[in-house]
Amino acid sequence: MTARISVRREISLRTREGLYGYGFILPWIIGFCLFTALPLVQTFLYSLNNVSVTATSISLNFVEWANYTRALFTDPNFIALLIGYAIETLVSVPIVLIFAMIVAIFLNQKFRLKGLFRVIFFLPIVITSGPVIRELSEQGAASAPGVADNPAIAEFLAQLSPSLRSPIEYVLTSFILILWFSGVQILIYLASLQKIDRSIYDAAAIDGASGWETFWKIVLPSLSTVTVVNAIYTIITLSHFSENRVIRYIYAQTYDVQGGIGYASAMSFIYFGVMIVLLAVIGFALLRWARKSSV
Amino acid sequence: MTHQVFDTRQAEAAAARARREQGRTHLLNHPIATGIRGFLFGNRAHRGLVFTLTLYALLIAIGFVYLQPLLFMFVTSIKSPADLLNPMVQWVPTELFMGNYERAFRVLDYPNTLLASIMISVVPSIIQTGIASLVGYGLARYRFRGKRLIFLLLLATFIIPPQNTIIPQMLTYRDLNLLGNPLALILPALLGQGFRSAIFILIFYQTFISLPKVLEESARLDGATDLRIFLTIAVPAAIPAYIVSLIFSTVWYWNETFLTVIFLEGGVTTLPMQLSSFTQAYENLYPPGTVSITERLNEAVKMSGTFLNILPLLVMYFVLQRWFVESVEMTGITGE
């Protein structure tokens, strides 16, 4: 008898806990439905229609996949922008990751004026906004100093094939911009570096490991998981950045007579798809490496 | 006694002999050489000079890369029109010219847009932080079905690009007559869907899950309600997470232009919004046909505008820099 009561109480306690849990996250669930799920479905519907918006109403004209085929096969700009975006992301992510890791390792050392350098290195977190970046790159302040306008380099670039030239040119002209996207990643690396137990370094030093070996055998493997996190973060910030050319094109098309909301929605979904593919490719590659190195 | 003295002498002589021998065979092991080597390349106790110098050189180089655009912005913004045209003047202007700032100040309508920016970034941030802590606490402290699904959807809200959801939202706001109203940003924040809300929810999840449960359990035995436990025990314990979230949220809302332009256009004008239409605003205020050539829009004025735009953030950053720099360590965000 008592056993049965306690079982029932146990169950009711668990239900109670569950209900309270849902209570705490209820605002989020409502918000997810209203502000994420519903608009996402609506945007998908728009992408299958010709949408015309008047002052009072929205009229839909079902066109199946016409918006998608137009974006993929007819529009001369969209595919070029999309390929550019994919290449730029694939080039930027390793640069950001390597750079952030190096800076974090530096900042993890003991040296004088560390506070000052930390303040400088995290500055980009604060000021990286679309309009500021646009003004700066318009003035040419975003390229690697003295490199992009160097005649020898221009000569060298001119001899490369276009498929190779555009990524290199991109790196040269927006090198500082790429580095400016590393602020949060440095923070994350630094935090996980500080979680490494100091005694492991001492043990390695006693065993005669050099700094170089310590990096490859201890530091890098312990940063592997967080590298995946950083890679995802980098891809998403780069893809959502309001100065991203694909986003600007989609935005311009939304209000264009030729384009319209339906067409812009279709492009948004194609762009989203490409982003997912990039996330999957980079994510899986890094995850495999992380598994291998952490075992 | 003498015996002992003799002994030490003998030992000293032997040691000196050994040193001499060693010095002959391994010049590099001489104490002075070891000292110099240790000084340059480091030994077990401390880093060497070469390493330290390399470290500083790299740090300064990277720091310069980061500061160069800011420096460029500032130097250009105080150049007079004559300095701008003079190819000899690169980094050091001949005079401190404040005219650009005067004009940028007026073009940006600085007091009004600054106030709007502060409101548009601080109010949603406070709401977003509060809701994120509530959701993060719910996820960290309660067991319920579908938690994995919630995490998956949380990640989805972070990944889905804003332009995939923004058009229907905008049309709904238009029907509700909320376009241009700050509520258009506040409502999503109130329901946990603010700008990058997922990150803040995860920060709070990490924070609460790493706090000990004991205090909350004893409060529950004393008959406190769940909301009371959250407000009186969990919230005070998570103050650093609140501060960090508030700071980052404010900065990100401040810098966000994609959402604000679409939702607030025509109603509220923030600083970054005004900066994106700087050229147009300038020409409205100083029509190109009517002003002299030195008063035309030039890059010095643009850079003044840009600098005025980031100035409040810079001030905030230097006041609160400790919280930025140590934020991740304080909240332990880097978890799984």
How would you summarize this macromolecular structure in one to three sentences?
The complex is a heterodimer of chains A (295) and B (336). Chain A has 295 residues and is mainly alpha-helical.
Textual characterization of the structure:
- The complex is a heterodimer of chains A (295) and B (336).
- Helices cover 78% and strands 3% of the residues of chain A.
- In chain A, helix 9 (183-194) runs antiparallel to helix 12 (224-240).
- The longest helix of chain A has 46 residues, at 2-47.
- Chain A has 295 residues and is mainly α.
- Chain A contains 14 helices and 2 strands; from the N terminus they run αββααααααααααααα.
- Chain B is mainly alpha-helical and 336 residues long.
- Helix content of chain B is 73%, strand content 0%.
- Chain B has 18 helices and no strands.
- Classes of the chains: A mainly alpha (295), B mainly alpha (336).
- Chains A and B meet through helix 1, helix 4, helix 5, helix 8 and helix 9 of A and helix 3, helix 6, helix 7, helix 8 and helix 9 of B.
